[in-house]
């Protein structure tokens, strides 16, 4: 009897283990209003420790570039770690919104984040946003190819998933590191590294071009390497073609063109494919915390998360909340200068919808240009159906973001 019970328990545990992403146990998160709206239902045991109204900038009207001061309530919540995937799934399926939350290593860390969110953005040194490198940018833009972006999306989508604890997620990190390394072609001023994280095996991937004049000043362009679908686990199919193979592939094309042209920035320019975004911005949170601790002069951060699916007639959408208003204006100006045929809209995506929020929370200037308005994002994300077919098996929309990102890297990468 005892033995049978034990065997049944072990079988049940194995089943749960296959479905559940990670260890059950208490987790501390900060959540915005969208996730909070479903929290009581999805995780009735969750316990709120604290909350505060956080100032955010919002478009005065949907799409418009005029900003209005708004606020969002952000809460510190203790929740069973095993409920987190269900929470983000419920917010997407039922509210069609980002289920943004940030995972913290401790209650103290979560409370400190809430405290920092209430501070007005520190007057960190902002660079000149003058657009004055068109003789470099314009010829490089002509080199960029959507077919290259599509090929990288397809390759990344071939991994069964890129989940942060899965063997495939680790293999994807290894593949990307070797791809970026071969693009760097042995340049001694370019370093490709796999960044190890505390708490899970998937490594972030970084390519750093050392600045020729002010190497201590740095620009960061990022996207996330991981993918997710429920029930999360080692073998679930999660191609994540749009979310976010598209962003990583777009950055890879920027790297390819910069390397082919032997581009040498005066400031350091770093490209990062973050691990573990889908489970609470964990990879970018560790990296941004490290750079803040080291007092790295990160002068600007650009996030590319979903670039391939065109959800609206308007081409590029810039999220105004948890981002940096002056840098957002610069990004819009880059589009006007280098991509004058495109239209630009402004929207909000809510608390912690992607890795830009990790940087914003540490006082760095971050922007997040997106493929669609928040309402019209690609609804196939986080499922097995997030394949290139949802965006017509081409990367013409992603190419626009590649051109924008290249102009950002060159203009801010040179003083
Ligand atoms: N790429 C999405 C974010 C996104 C989705 C932005 C739709 C705008 C519209 C991202 O990878 C994601 O899914 N984020 C999570 C939040 C995360 C912290 C758990 C989400 O939205 O549920
Ligand atoms: Zn994403």
Summarize the structure in words:
This protein has 415 residues and is an alpha/beta fold. The chain has 2 domains: 2-118, Alpha-Beta Plaits; 134-413, Zn peptidases (Aminopeptidase), CATH 3.40.630. Helices cover 39% and strands 21% of the residues. It has helices spanning 2-19, 33-42, 84-95, 107-118, 134-141, 146-158, 167-184, 241-260, 282-293, 325-338, 356-360, 396-413; strands at 26-31, 47-59, 67-80, 101-104, 190-195, 204-209, 214-224, 267-274, 297-303, 316-319, 344-347, 366-367, 369-370. It has a 6-stranded mixed beta sheet, with helices on both faces. The site of ligand BES has 22 residues, from helix 3 and helix 8.
Number of helices: 12
Measured on Cα atoms, how large is the radius of gyration? 21 Å
Helix content: 25-40%
Report the sheet with the most strands, covering strand number, pairing sense and barrel closure.
6 strands, mixed
Low-pLDDT ranges: 1-21
Annotated CATH topology of the largest domain? Aminopeptidase
CATH top level class name of the largest domain: Alpha Beta
Mean pLDDT: 93
